[in-house]
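Q: I'm writing a short explainer about Chloride channel protein for a general audience and would like to include a description of its predicted shape. Could you first generate the structure from this sequence?
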Amino acid sequence: MESEQLFSRGLGRNSYNSITSASSDEELLDGAGVIMDFHTTEDDSLLDGDTSPGSNYTMSNGGGGAGASSSTHLLDLLEEPIPGVGTYDDFHTIDWVREKCKDRERHRKINSKKKESAWEFSKSLCDAWSGWLVVTLTGLASGALAGVIDIAADWLNDLKEGVCLSAMWFNHEQCCWDSNETTFAERDKCPQWKTWAELILGQAEGPGSYIMNYFMFTFWALSFAFLAVSLVKVFAPYACGSGIPEIKTILSGFIIRGYLGKWTLMIKTITLVLAVASGLSLGKEGPLVHVACCCGNIFSYLFPKYSKNEAKKREVLSAASAAGVSVAFGAPIGGVLFSLEEVSYYFPLKTLWRSFFAALVAAFVLRSINPFGNSRLVLFYVEYHTPWYLFELFPFILLGVFGGLWGAFFIRANIAWCRRRKSTRFGKYPVLEVITVAAITAIVAFPNPYTRQNTSELIKELFTDCGPLESSQLCQYRSQMNGSQAFPAGSDAAAAPGVYTAMWQLSLALIFKIIMTIFTFGLKVPSGLFIPSMAIGAIAGRIVGIAVEQLAYYHHDWFLFREWCEVGADCITPGLYAMVGAAACLGGVTRMTVSLVVIVFELTGGLEYIVPLMAAVMTSKWVGDAFGREGIYEAHIRLNGYPFLDAKEEFTHTTLARDVMRPRRNDLPLSVLTQDDMTLAELQNIISQTSYNGFPVIVSKESERLVGFALRRDITIAIENSRRKQEGIVLNSRVYFTQHAPTLPADSPRPLKLRSILDMSPFTVTDHTPMEIVVDIFRKLGLRQCLVTHNGILLGIITKKNILEHLEELKQHVEPLVISPSHSAC
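A: Of course. Here's the predicted structure. Afterward I'll give you a sentence or two in plain language.
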């Protein structure tokens, strides 16, 4: 969805609550405490009239209790939370400060009551342990769903080639486990497993058999793809894509209702299996993060502590994203670091512990299910018998350069294609697009054994070191003793024709994967990017590894190899190059560093090779950043117009707050409310004639001294609530935001008090504040808007939308003051 659509859905033109960012809860806590707890001063007389000097009170953001006095009306005595106030509409942002204040108030109330009775004490214990319980449930559900997805995807993927007659629910590998008729060279062939040609034509070889298998492979691929896109389109449109860009945006404080709901979870789980089995160039790892976050969101509704507080709910989602990566790669620690580095906008120590626990529980459940049948968490476990040597850093760095170039090219090409999809009629037919891409993928992939097989199996084969138990074409080397083809266990040897054939097939597979991944990522089916990127890097790495291996074999007297490689001794491990290339390409696309290295060595068990991984990943990031600092997820966030302020992006310009604030010189005046001299009719007129999501409240039109800030939604709900519960509220009723009602004639209708919805502590900056500081404040405090003042007089407002527009203008080298009034905010 485009940014203008986002802003128009309830946000309106020039809305300034449409966008905000997440922040650190501890910083919010400290910042809110400084801003919101204060003593009355001489300015308070401007707000409360007869408030006694020196009185001491505390305001809470979005709520403000006030004592009653004899001069107030009945409404003052009924001061209580208004139902609906403090909630958020779809495509709006949360108020982090208010949410944190609500949580602190809830926590104080529980602590004050826990000594009253055993029941209250047990309630406080339940509240304290609810966070651990919700992440435990999230980890259990994530691990179970990941195991089911892995097993089902493997079974459906093998269904494209044949079926197990002895047990229909077995995939190809499981079908041949108990067979006594398999051979070493053809260990995947057994009487129990029948190809479609054998079942339909009764023959296993020949042109007719090949054509029948080709047809059935394409038929099943198209069927799976069609079913997946149809389910997504009809039942859960949010189930498409990776989900990580949207989760990053949600964790920054944005509301996308239904994106983490039960229907999305159900459809994403089913369609992810179908999409992976269809053979499209996509993976299940990114969508598994989305699935885990759906579990976290659903379980959070079981506990009021999280269901009624959007900021606390995001702590659960951060832990859920760690559990998602934990089960996607079998990398619990890497999952925690992924959540910290890539997904979460804020990651306090408490969330770190819970993320670690959620990842642990999810990994334990997945290990118990054992979906890969190898008694390990991961599919790509490798054991290399040769250490790496110093001269190999050069090809490792070259692989890092390739990964950075591939990442930069992929991001630009994929974003260009997605933008074209949005702006042309082709994007209106998602089913046709998916079917077309699936058909091309299946038709081109079948003749090449390296593109026909499951991408995860391809990566596993490329990572594997050659030994006596390997029958792959990549391991067909000539024996040094008699020149015949053999499978040497521990020595470098000349490559046999099978290796060169495999090199050509891998080169064609590399080109195919590069092209198809560009057009596949962004389709209206669940589509992850981790596995395709790793496959591209693994293919390139294996090719480079074999090339270096043969170079060392035939030129062992070169100065590079002379010191390290003895004749007949182990020297080069091509599988290690595949692993390094996979990490480099994934790093080039996502721009991850620390978490990626940890994920890869957890994924493969190759802890000894962490230095080559670090060198390649860092090189990949540097090369990629030279062409653009955005990773693929940030690029898709910007493409979709999501309101996200990237904390990694630096602001180096010298503009001031007055250059960005609204209104501008030629704009309409700022829409404001006065604290005690407006009628209900005037207030409703302002609301009906504007589309802003909130209004600054000032002392008077003459003074323009700032009092606070009131949200449009809260005002509307408060008015409806007062009319429903109170008599005498009419259009002529005076509306006041002060502590006590203003002096009115005796025959005046009952006034309407709205102080409880007034934010008495809106964040303000002066007009000379550098924008570098303002942007940092928005990032760290998660502000929805910031008011600009001069000597206490309100001048304007800065919203996150204004900041994003300003950053975009600076990127395009447009002067910030040159802007049309139609794009101005409040």
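A: For your explainer, you could say: The CA atoms of residues 90 and 257 lie 6 Å apart.
Q: Perfect, that's easy to follow.
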